[in-house]
Structures are given as structure tokens and as C-alpha cells.
Amino acid sequence: MKVIHDSKELQQTALALRAQGKTIALVPTMGNLHAGHASLMDEARPRADVLIVSVFVNPTQFGPNEDYEKYPRTLDADCEVCRAHGADILFAPTPETMYAPTFSTYITESACSQGLCGRSRPTHFRGVCTVVDILFNLAQPNVAVFGQKDAQQVAVLKRMVQDLHIPVEMVVAPIVREEDGLALSSRNQYLTPKERAAAPKIQAALQTLKNSIATGTDATEKLAEIFVNELSADAVFEPEYIEIVDNTTMAPLKKIEPGNTLIAVAVRMTESRTRLIDNILV
Ligand code: PAF
């Protein structure tokens, strides 16, 4: 596996590979790789001749009071995960090689990005779209793999690819969970022991909603109320939002539409102030 830190070097390497007729799969990450990221690499590996994994904690997708500085950076361990899951190239740039000092061009998706996480993180998806487009231009992928855990990110990026006619196939891999149901996330390590013990209740509350839907509850307002009541019993949870939306457009739904409904939640943990997100497709 080759490790590349410079953006021009990655672009030249990728262009040369494409000129030789090789196909490229890209897995963009922010590092601190866990089994969720490994599953994205496993999904990507058989889809192309060359697998590129990027590890970059992207400053433009963090708000002013978010965790950019403390976001875990573990490049040596990340190298091992990439190697073990068949990556050919690990791209680990510095912010300086990604963003020139004069940088002033951003991509704004202005429909799917407005609700859910976009409400409390107003510049987040602008940063995500911008960096992913830069990564696409550098890595020249035929296919890119993202995780369903960030369901709104997937919707926003799919829209960007469609709107800007970007020639990349978007593949979405399922959420990977701990045995107790907690969705894997690099931010889980911020949780206090009490919060970690309680955190699987988020997934359990989502399952309760699935059961309520199966037994005939289809009014989304009622379902949101059930979710909030389930979590409010425990003082470690401060639900930020529960949104029941069209999975493609992220537009709110009044009634469940089986086949294309996403139930997405964000919960703030009261001790560490960690924000966890999770979702289920109905
Ligand atoms: O999902 C992530 O880890 C990031 O948002 C991404 C897509 C790598 C862009 O920085």
C-alpha cells in the first residue's frame, strides 16, 4: 500500500491509472478507522481495480464550537486497517495541500441539506460537499462508498453528484453496530461510562418505532412523540431532533410511506455533550 500526502501527487497517480484503463474505488473517511469504515472498504474492494482510502479531518465541515481540534487522529492505526482491508493507496493530506491559502470556492446543496443536522450545523454540508468534490477531482474514482449511518450526508452527496453531473457511482453500505445496538462512530469514545451504557437505548427506541409502524401507527407526529417519551425517561439523553422524512429528498412526511421513509435522530448526551446520530429505513 502506498501512502500519499500531497494532493497533486494523488491526482497525477489517479490520472495515470485511469489512462491505463484501471478503475478506481474511493472510500472517503476522516480516519480513526473502526469496523464501520472497514465495511466500506470491503464493499468497495471488489468494485474496482484500485482502492483509494482517504483520511482527512476536514476543517470546513466543522462549526466554530465543534470538535475539530479534539477529533481523534490515529494515522498509524488507520494505515493498518487500510492495509488489512486491501487498500492500494492511503491518501492522508494536510489541510494546506487540500485548501490553498486563497481558497474561496464552496459547493452548497440547498434542499436536502436544510433540515435534520443542517439546522444545528448550518455550514456542515457545504464543507462535506466541497471536500468530497475535491477528493473526487483528486482520486478520479469510478465508484465511491459512503455509510448509511450518515443518511443525510448520503442524500446531499447523491444530489450533488446528480446536479453537477459528476461521473461517479455512489454506493451506500449499511450501518455497522456494536453487539448492544449502538451504531459505530468515532465520537462514541467521548461518552462517559454512564452514557455508553445508556446509548444503545437510541437504537432500541428506533426499533420500538418500527414495531409501532408494523402494528399500524403511521402518523409521523405520533411516532416522534413515542421516540421522545422512550428517551426522556433517562436523564443522559437530550433528543435534538427526530425527523421522519423521504429518504431521497429529506422532505418531512406526515405519514409513513413504506419503502422510502427514513427515521433519523440526533441525541445530545448530557454529561459529555457528545452528539450521536442514528437512523432506520422503513
Ligand atoms: O463521513 C465522513 O467521514 C466525512 O463527512 C467525509 C465524507 C469523509 C467528508 O469529510
Write structural notes for this entry:
- The chain is an alpha/beta fold.
- The chain folds into two domains: about 170 residues, HUPs (Rossmann fold), CATH 3.40.50.620; about 100 residues, 2-Layer Sandwich (Pantoate--beta-alanine Ligase, Chain: A,domain 2), CATH 3.30.1300.10.
- About 35% of the residues lie in helices and about 20% in strands.
- It has ten helices and nine strands.
- The strands form two sheets. Strands 1-4-3-2-5-6 form a six-stranded parallel sheet, with helices on both faces. The protein has a three-stranded antiparallel sheet with strand order 7-8-9, covered by helices on one side.
- α6 crosses α7 and α9 packs antiparallel against α10.
- The longest helix is centred in the middle third of the chain and has 16 residues.
- The chain is globular and about 55 Å long.
- Pantoate (PAF) binds next to β2 and α6.
- The site of pantoate (PAF) has 10 residues, from β2 and α6.
Tags for this entry?
282 residues, alpha/beta, Rossmann fold, Pantoate--beta-alanine Ligase, Chain: A,domain 2, 3-stranded antiparallel beta sheet, 9 strands, 37% helix, 19% strand, globular, binds pantoate
Q: Summarize this, please?
A:
The chain has 282 residues and is an alpha/beta fold.
Looking at the overall shape, the CATH architecture of the largest domain is 3-Layer(aba) Sandwich
Q: Roughly how much helix do the residues carry, as a percent range?
A: 25-40%
Beta-strand content: 15-25%
The CATH homology group name of the largest domain: HUPs
What class do helices, strands and sheet pairing give? Answer: alpha/beta
Distance between the termini: 39 Å
CA-atom Rg in angstroms? 19 Å
Q: Overall 3D geometry?
A: globular
β-strand number = 9
Which whole number gives the mean pLDDT?
A: 97
